[in-house]
Amino acid sequence: MNRLKNDCYLRALLKQPIDYTPIWIMRQAGRYLPEYRTTRSISGSFLSLCKSPELSSEITLQPLRRFPLDAAILFSDILTIPDAMGLGLYFKSGEGPKFSNPISCIADIKKIGVPDPEHELQYVMNAIRQTCKELKNALPLIGFSGSPWTLATYMVEGGTSKKFTKIKKMMYREPIATHLLLNKLANSIIEYLNAQIKAGVHSVIIFDTWGGILTTNDYESFSLAYMKKIINNLIHENNGTRIPITLFTKNSGIWLEKIAETGCDSIALDWTIPISDAKYRVGRKVALQGNMDPSILYAKPERIREEVETILKNFGYTNSGGHVFNLGHGIHSDVEPESVRIFIETVHKISPKYHRST
Ligand code: CP3
């Protein structure tokens, strides 16, 4: 692999010395950008953007043309796997994702197979190859997947949920069937992420958006155990370069020690835990990512700057990386792009003093 011009993000994750704290933003390509809204309206739908390697690559690059971000993230979605399993993904405006053939019984689970990433999901691999070509080694490209548990919630609920009644009923009444589903998903995710790594991504993230709705015991057996299995089966190096793995479980502040034991390189935090507490609890075992409340971007510039300084100060001085700045969840679609610029520039401007060794 050719050397990247800016590898600050990868160095931070691998706890190597850096000059400043790198930043990328969850959902950095998306509806808050007018150029995204234009491309989306021309293409007709969000899914047609994901399924076109040219458009996916174009949208991945849009925020990088505006802002000095330190990483690109593949423009796609976590629900590509269930779609490739035949569940029929579609998006209803204002209601989020939906499946026309959700999973409702063990017979449905037995029917689904493990998608071939270079066949049913080849459009994702082509988007990665196209994006790598366009990036010309300027920045690392992040690949991603949903966690087995989070994908299962969408597949069983048939879309976004508030109470998670169906998946919890299945989990408590049919635990063996639920484990069969989670195992098929874990095997699919292993194949999918390994194919993304072979196609050129420099780092991967597993998004476990809904792990935080579980009890501690159920989190360990229905979510964390499968993320651990995935980590154990991922390619950890490509052409001699290490591929750092990040886990994000929203609302997982109480489980950080357990997450750090999975073998991941980094934990992405939501905004509910002070990053100083998280750092104290995981020590130098893993890097941390986060963790500004996305709603701070509605504030005036002084308040945004103040929050950035607080988080940097809470993480503290480091002469060996370990912190990637980010929001604690996706950016809201009605944030002003100008506030995003102030946010990124502030991280770059004030973080060097937390890295200088002299
Ligand atoms: O970060 C990035 O810029 C990469 C792109 C990305 C998207 N989805 C694009 C997207 C990533 C990393 C995701 C992951 C994803 N998708 C997650 C995990 C992270 C999280 O947010 O917790 C989840 C749970 C999904 C499922 C999903 N996809 C939902 C719930 C929605 C609706 C969201 C909304 O605000 O309406 C989507 C659609 C989606 N995925 C959009 C984008 C830009 C909005 C599509 C549009 O209307 O144009």
TrEMBL record:
One of its GO terms (molecular function) is uroporphyrinogen decarboxylase activity. One of its GO terms (cellular component) is cytosol. One of its GO terms (biological process) is protoporphyrinogen IX biosynthetic process from glutamate. SUPFAM superfamilies: UROD/MetE-like. Its EC number is 4.1.1.37. This is Uroporphyrinogen decarboxylase. Catalyzes the decarboxylation of four acetate groups of uroporphyrinogen-III to yield coproporphyrinogen-III. NCBIfam families: hemE. It comes from Candidatus Photodesmus katoptron Akat1.
